[in-house]
Task: inverse folding
């Protein structure tokens, strides 16, 4: 990494170059207008930034004359060392795209780190496939099937609280599934492959279905008034609207007792799902604590 050349630039310039790299690596392209819109600079300044980035990292971007945009170069090597948390924050929440550096915290805090992070090279291929709406060829490793070759059509990232998935149509099983990103190896964008209408996100019933849930203090726990305070309940109820595809993950993350008779015991079960039938037909409900249905005992993740 040409640290000396970067050090000669101003902090705003380095932040803009970091944005260029994120856009190209994880989205697949960047235009001058993207820099103009993001940083409020003139078009001429954006042109200079792109020229500087190309000078610092010659193999990272190429100009596509047909699309009139800069695209990922064939010999890409990261100029900036972004931690996975920053990349995922930028991808999913739209912030944190400045130069990666340690800044002094305003107040003391402690945030637990995740046990695992997706490989940024794999993640970049996944997010480019999402943005460019093209299938992705992958080598996938699962507990039940071992190593298999797959073609998936990804359309959204999903954080289940423990690890990152990508929601995708799996051409092998002909179903929409959650694909664990850390289990993906050797991803390849299939830009020339057609995406059929049946493979698009609007055909994913579990993704488009929104379930409305009412959570209440667990009847077996003492001091329900404290639970109401902790969860900001209105009228003694916490109302949530979740995608069916993610509901089970969230209910498990929050340790919500989803049994019909609030039978789960333990200090972690502060909340109870008032109506367990609200998640009937939700495929991910198999992951929800205490919920059971003979019709739903099936894998949620790609197997």
Result:
């Amino acid at each position: 990494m040409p640290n000396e050349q970067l050090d000669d630039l101003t902090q705003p310039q380095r932040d803009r170059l970091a944005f260029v790299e994120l856009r190209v690596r994880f989205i697949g392209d960047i235009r001058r207008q993207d820099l103009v819109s993001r940083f409020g600079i003139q078009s001429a300044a954006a042109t200079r930034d792109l020229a500087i980035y190309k000078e610092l990292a010659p193999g990272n971007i190429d100009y596509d004359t047909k699309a009139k945009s800069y695209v990922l170069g064939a010999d890409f090597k990261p100029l900036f060392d972004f931690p996975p948390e920053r990349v995922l924050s930028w991808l999913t929440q739209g912030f944190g795209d400045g130069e990666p550096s340690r800044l002094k915290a305003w107040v003391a805090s402690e945030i637990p780190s995740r046990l695992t992070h997706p490989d940024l090279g794999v993640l970049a291929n996944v997010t480019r496939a999402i943005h460019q709406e093209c299938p992705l060829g992958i080598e996938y490793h699962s507990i039940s099937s071992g190593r298999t070759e797959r073609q998936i059509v990804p359309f959204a990232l999903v954080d289940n609280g423990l690890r990152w998935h990508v929601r995708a149509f799996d051409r092998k099983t002909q179903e929409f599934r959650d694909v664990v990103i850390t289990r993906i190896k050797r991803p390849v964008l299939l830009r020339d492959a057609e995406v059929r209408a049946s493979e698009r996100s609007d055909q994913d019933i579990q993704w488009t279905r929104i379930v409305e849930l009412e959570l209440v203090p667990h009847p077996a726990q003492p001091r329900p008034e404290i639970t109401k305070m902790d969860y900001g309940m209105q009228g003694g109820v916490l109302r949530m609207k979740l995608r069916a595809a993610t509901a089970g993950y969230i209910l498990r993350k929050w340790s919500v007792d989803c049994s019909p008779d609030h039978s789960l015991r333990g200090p972690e079960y502060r909340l109870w799902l008032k109506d367990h039938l609200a998640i009937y037909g939700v495929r991910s409900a198999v992951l929800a604590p205490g919920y059971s249905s003979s019709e739903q005992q099936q894998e949620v993740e790609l197997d």
About this structure: Residues 58 and 92 are 28 Å apart (CA to CA). The radius of gyration is 23 Å. DSSP finds nine helices and twelve strands in the chain. The chain has a mean pLDDT of 91.
